[in-house]
Amino acid sequence: MTIACYAASVKTSARTRKEQIMATALIILAAGQGKRMNSDLPKVLHELGGTPLFAHALAAGSALAPDRVVLVAGNGAEAVTKAATDRDDEIEVVLQEERLGTGHAVDQARTALGGFTGDAIVLYGDTPFIRPETLEAMMEARASGADVVILGFEAADPKRYGRLVMDGKELLRIVEFNDASDEERAITLCNSGVVAADSATLFELIDGLSNENAAGEYYLTDIVEVARAKGLRAEAVTCDEAETLGINTRAELAAAEAQLQDMKRAEALENGVTLVAPETVFFCADTVIGRDAVVEPNVVFGPDVTVESNARIRAFSHLEGCHVSAGAVVGPYARLRPGAELAERAKVGNFVEIKNAQIAEGAKVNHLSYIGDASVGEGANIGAGTITCNYDGVFKHRTEIGARAFIGSDTMLVAPVRVGADAMTATGTVVTRDIADGAMGVGRARMEVKPGFAVKLFDKLRAKKARQKGK
Ligand code: UD1
Ligand code: CA
Prior knowledge:
By secondary structure, the protein is of the alpha/beta class. It folds into 2 domains: 7-244, Spore Coat Polysaccharide Biosynthesis Protein SpsA, Chain A (Alpha-Beta Complex), CATH 3.90.550.10; 250-441, 3 Solenoid (UDP N-Acetylglucosamine Acyltransferase, domain 1), CATH 2.160.10. 23% of the residues lie in helices and 27% in strands. The strands form 6 sheets. Strands 13, 15, 16, 18, 19, 21, 22, 24, 26, 29 and 32 form an 11-stranded parallel sheet that branches. The protein has a 10-stranded parallel sheet with strand order 12-14-17-20-23-25-27-30-33-35, covered by helices on one side. A 7-stranded mixed sheet has the order 5-4-1-6-10-7-11. The protein is elongated. The relative contact order is 0.08. Uridine-diphosphate-N-acetylglucosamine (UD1) binds at residues 29-32, 72, 74, 96, 99-102, 104-105, 124-126, 161-162, 174, 176, 190-193, 219-221, 246.
């Protein structure tokens, strides 16, 4: 498998291409029911590498720096719309109320793209591995004169895929399996579903579609024949079959996840990251890890994690939505939740949870702690079992700990509260008031020592036990 997922280099080439050529719009088909997923969740919202399926198609298409993105939703449209609009990128969602075929699905984007001039690229929301470079190749074919470009692949087992009928470089037509003759079924060059054409042309061609076929659907694939009838030229660009893998079942989703993990591990190793046991480390599609970082076995990365060079993520840690700076050490058994920011050489040790908190340079939170909604100053030392009591049941409150402060073990910091720089808390203190710079906070019951008391107490208890046995 040689698929590189989110290659950074692609962005540059997309820009150069964009400078040379016209605008692009993505049309992502995502109306399908995904019946075989056996799920209440629309298929394109199932996650791969911590990101919904449709976002993978979007990521590939983003390499073309599209001016417009239209998502065609149908089944579970409400949830799909919410997921699409919650994202930063501007996605227009259009509704396909009735599923009358892929041609009909693309047609739903017509109004949204009404004023748009440029190329339209049709992608499937359930096909996550199309490489940006492949889309680039399709755009090159467009630029060198093909009116319609179809992405094809040599199928090891062509199954029910649409077959590409070629005449040299020219694509004559696409025939769906159900409509194909035995001779056509023998063709192994198949249709991936990805299409590129001038937007206005595409909708004109769709006007020429009919649903007189085995499935009674408006096949997008028929635009090739319509185009040829109009004297336009269609071509196929090919890619590796692995890129065209579509997700229809949970088993396929799991297989795709395994494929993505392999890709991410290979990418990390190639980028100079040490993975002690690569097969036990799980990444998200967007995980970024710097050179010479070390990731020990059994580490899980959730969405939105950046780990800088020379950091060490020790075994059995779970990280999401966080940033780990150079030289920091995390774990073993640490949990970094969204908003955790570790500065250089910070240390977060075993059974420590950090959420929405900044741990400044060289600060240490080494054992059994919860630090949430807090800032911990440079070089501060947080003793074992320290807890920020950040939640009162309704509101969240912040804790601020100054530089070089020493927080004694088992300190409860009842937020909002501030511990100054160079300040200290005594072990077991419940901090309910601010502690000034350089001051010490002590808040615990005074201890007494009673000589001989333990022996007397044990004697009494043992006597009681003996009496009970005698009864
Ligand atoms: C389609 C192609 C086939 C190709 C195969 C690749 C057509 C007619 N056939 O077949 O040549 O080999 O994909 O996987 O295009 N969708 C909608 N609305 C619809 C119909 C489909 O949004 O009304 C979406 C689906 O959610 C899916 C995609 O379009 O993401 C493909 O639809 P699907 O029914 O899976 O097409 P196939 O029959 O597999
Ligand atoms: Ca399909």
